[in-house]
Amino acid sequence: VNDTGCRIYLVDDDPSVLKGLSRLLCSAGYETVQFSSAKQFMEHYDADEPGCLVLDLAMPGFTGLDLQRWLLELNSPLPVIFLTGHGDVPTSVRAIKKGAVDFLTKPVNDEELLRAIREALEHESATRMEYAKVAAIRARLGTLTPREREVMEHVVSGQLNKQIADVLGTALQTIKVHRARVMRKMGVLSLAELVQLAARAGIGRKQLPDS
Amino acid sequence: VVLDGWVRDSVAKWIKALGWMLLTLSALGATATGPKRVLLLYSFGRGFAPSIPLDTAFRTELAQQCKVPIEFHEASLEVPRFVAGESQEAVVAYLQTLFGGRAPDLVVPFGGPAVKFALQQRARLFQGVPLLLAGTDARHLQGFTLDTNTTAVGHSFELAHVISNLERLRPDTTNIMVVVGNSTLETFWRGEMQREFVSFTNRIAFTYLNELSLKEMEERLGHLPPRSGIFYFSLFVDAAGVPYETADVVETLHAAANAPMVGLLEEDLGRGIMGGPLLSLSQVGREAAHVAMRILSGESPGSIHTPTLRQDRLVYDWRELQEWGIKESQLPAGSEVRFRTPGFVSQYRGRILAAASLCLLEGGLILALVRELRRRRLTEHSLRESQERMKLAASAAELGIWDWDLVTDEIWARGPTAERLDTGQAGRTDYNGFLRSVHAEDRREVVQALDEALKGDGDYESVHRALYPDGQVHWVAARGRVEFDAKHTPLRMRGVAMDITTRKQAEMLALESERRFILMANSAPVLIWASGPDKLCTFFNQPWLNFTGRTLEQEMGNGWADGVHSDDLAGCLKVYNESFDARQQFTMEYRLRRHDGQYRWVSDNGVPRYDARGDFLGYIGSCMDVTERKHAESEAQGAHQQLAHVSRVSTLGELAGSLAHELNQPLAAILSNAQAAQRFLNGGNADLDEVREILKDIVAEDRRAGEVIVRMRAMLRKGETHMAPLELNQVIWEVLGLMRSELLSRRVTTTTHLAQDLPLVLADRVQLQQVLLNLIVNACDAMSDNPPPERRLTITSQLVDPELIEAAVTDIGPGFALDVLERIFEPFYTTKPNGLGLGLPICRSIIDAHGGQLLVENGEERGATVRFTVPLHKKEVL
Asked: How far away is chain B from the Cα of A168, in angstroms, using its nearest Cα?
């Protein structure tokens, strides 16, 4: 059923729960990797491997929330589904705010878990795609000269060529040339496209001027 | 370490209460009349072997000699079992209760520890009360200055004399084993011995056996090399911590030993020691009684000085001398040898006859002499000779002899009889003269007895009152025999007579004292019984008979047992028989049927009784109806259980979330497994082996969930205390298991230091779990403001005493504020917003009920530790 090549990473300090979950996911056609602690998972984690993390919240030592924080710091796209013994609202809100895909209580129903995993994996692949796009944009950004980059930042922040020339202290014509090169190198035809790319790459988050 | 507030507080309370009590006591004591109240303060308990002769002699002497009635009260420090100091407050409290309204007229501490206690507590307890220190070695009085209201009947053990004595009898001795126990008191004496035996050490090696248990001592003393000797000092508590209360220890050691044993006390002679210079504890007791009498009759104690008693009796056990081949000629001059076997007696018949008691003479001698007379009467010469001998024997025994010629009616008398009878100058009188000397009221009986002897078989016997010429009335016992001729005509009558006034008076005194006892027993508000040495009951007082509504005849022997509730009978008889055999005091409770058919709870307190010579006479006991108290107790017990239940439920309530989690783990595993199996089966290509595995795991997980529920239910259960031997460490693990999730979610890390191979404790599992649960929850609460790495909980267990295991729960929270520490065990006092304030009070009451202690203390820098002890499960010792 699932041929995405995605693995489900299970982290729970209770070996019986780990075994049961693994069997359930196996019966649904997923490949699972089991870890009995957050630390063990961290030692084996490879950011390039696609997949989904099913994580027990309460574990001795490094807890589920600690592991989630660690992944965020790594900028990992790995989606996280929390499993917990009892629904603790503040904790689940905190987890979801930090990007958890879902927060499920034990004992968890198969449909519910599989739905969450499905969504997580979709989310994951979307994220990965987004990551890939951003990576491409970044690569293109890398081809700009410092001056072109400077000009682009002014352009996407909504400044007119004339204003840019004033700020940078160069001729209007020079700005126009730089701007044309930026459009070409970034592979866009319109200013709107450029602004979108820049936003994805995290450049120039200033408001567009009223038009 | 901060001193526990509550300890300080309660001590202060006692002192205050005592101060008030003493003020009241001295005011009342001055004007009180009635029996003199004498408080006997024992070091080791009255049933303790060395105390018995001292105590018995003291009481007997005082009771017999003192003109005013004496009321004895007693208290014991129970020194061998408790560390001194710890129990002193309890004794002080007990004494306060005992003397609720009125101070004693005299306080008599027996033995070193009691003497020390009395002198130390003098200012608090016995102020203004005369103090008589008895049975204490002069060494224990060093360092104390006796005030004018205190005197001592002291003794002094001459330890070196004992060794010199052994050396004199067995000059080749090179090796002496010293039997001495391991109590504080005995450790003191071991030091004294080591000091005083220095002069022997160039030729004798001393080994002190204080580090051995009794069993090990037996083993050791049974395999001594030749030229060894044993000095039995004392064995109150052996190295294994076992206290020995009875004198059997000497006998046990004697039975095991292969070398001669010497000792200090005359009371141990006959139990296995060979003898030597001995101290008589009975004598100490008697001396003390004489001093007590002087104090009670108003003499100032400070003005009474008695010489220190020493081991001045040289007494030996004949059997031991024989066994170790010691001749009597080796003994020092003035030695007395006891316990000769009967065979020996016959060799020295003459000497013994002269010294034998009047009773013996009265019975046996006369018949022997009369028979001899008859055999020899043919020869005048022999007759005179035998009369001479008879006179001799008679005068030795203060017997009077008489000879009545029936033909001439002449009575001829010699000895005391002659002085008594108005025999004139020639020592002669006649029948009428004799009758005149008999008390008018007894005359008829005497005539009748004489008449029967003359007409019958010739034997005359009479006990009657005689009028002495000086007008005094004396009791006389007389025996005689008639000589008949061939036609059975009486010719003469010969016989002896003796003055038995002293014995008769003693008998009457005894009768009087018995009458007094019965009068007292019948007017006492308690049920009193007494039994003989055969365990059968011989007496019940009137209140007993009124209570049961039965007659004395019905209750006698074992008849009383009919009234005991059938459920209590076996236990009741067991306690009675076992205590009886061990000669130990007992207290037991059982249900006794009242005259109206209703069973009432009685508390029965029995003590062995002894005569003046220390011979066991049986038991005497008193019972009180304690039904009301019993009801109150069980109500209180019920209320306490209810409260403990509520507190358990509330503690569990706090943990509810975590417990649910604990249950969710196995449920999660079960659900996942079951749904996986369904999917495998629906998929159509199910691996049956896999499904089988899954089902096996489901069963296992279900069981796990069940166990969680059982544990929770046990905690929620209402129920009676169920004491059973159990492992404390296991209980700790169970509670930690129950709290796993709670500890996880509170991010508390737990470290355990549990001693291995701890003996079992006797406790109620659920109650111990409750205590631990409470303490752990409290510790976690205390650390909730700490950052997670500093939420460390430490649980320890260890053996702290041969009889106690201690468990401690330590946190590193802020510790208790001092004002909190003082109030922490007050019910409904709490520092938590949602707390009931019952946790710690209930924990403490649970631990108290187990016979342990629960204490709270702050750490040196931060944190707090709550520690509690639980007594070990003692295997039945039979």
From this structure: 52
Residue of B nearest to A62 (CA): B747
Closest to B746 in 3D by CA, of A23, A60, A193: A60
DSSP B233-288: EE-SB-TT--B--STHHHHHHHHH-SS-EE-SBGGGBTTTB-EEEEB-HHHHHHHH
- Dihedral (CA of B194, B196, B201, B206) sign: negative
Cβ of A81 under 8 Å from any chain B Cβ? no
Q: Which amino acid is at B55?
A: D
Q: pLDDT digit string (tens) for B280-315?
A: 888 888 889 989 988 888 888 888 888 888 888 889
Question: Using an 8 Å Cβ cutoff, are B577 and B565 in contact?
Answer: no
- 0.90 exceeded by the pTM? no
Question: Which residue, B92, B233, B91, B211, is CA-closest to B166?
Answer: B233
* 3-class SS of residue B306: coil
Write the CA distances from A106 to A12, A82, A87, B133, B356, integer angstroms: 12, 10, 9, 77, 99
Give per-residue pLDDT as tens, B843-859.
888 888 888 999 999 98
Q: Which residues pair with residue A82 across a beta bridge?
A: A55, A103
Q: Does B747 touch chain A (CB under 8 A)?
A: yes
- Interatomic CA distance for residues B634 and B650, integer angstroms: 24
Q: What confidence score (pLDDT) does residue B794 get?
A: 95
CB contact (8 A) between residue A17 and residue B668: yes
Nearest-CA neighbor of A92 among A80, A76, A103, A83? Answer: A103
Q: B587, B593 in Cβ contact below 8 A?
A: no
Half-sphere exposure of B392 (CA within 13 A, CB side): 9
Pairwise CA distance, residues B665 & B705, whole Å: 8
Q: Which residues contact B424 (CB under 8 A, 6 or more apart)?
A: none
Token readout for B296 is 């009670």
| Contact (Cβ atoms closer than 8 angstroms) between residue B454 and residue B407 | no
User: What's the Cα-to-Cα distance from B294 to each of B58, B103, B105, rounded to whole Å?
Assistant: 14, 19, 12
Whether residue A83 contacts residue A54, with contact meaning beta carbons closer than 8 Å, is answered with yes
SS3 B623: strand
CA B106 to chain CA centroid, nearest Å? 22
Answer whether B157's CB lies under 8 Å from B311's CB: yes
Given CB atoms, is A37 within the 8 Å cutoff of chain B? no
**For residues B591 and B575, what is the distance between their CA atoms, to the nearest angstrom?**
14
Q: Is the pLDDT of residue B424 over 70?
A: no
| Interface mutation vs chain A, best among B655, B675, B681, B736, most A CBs within 10 Å | B675
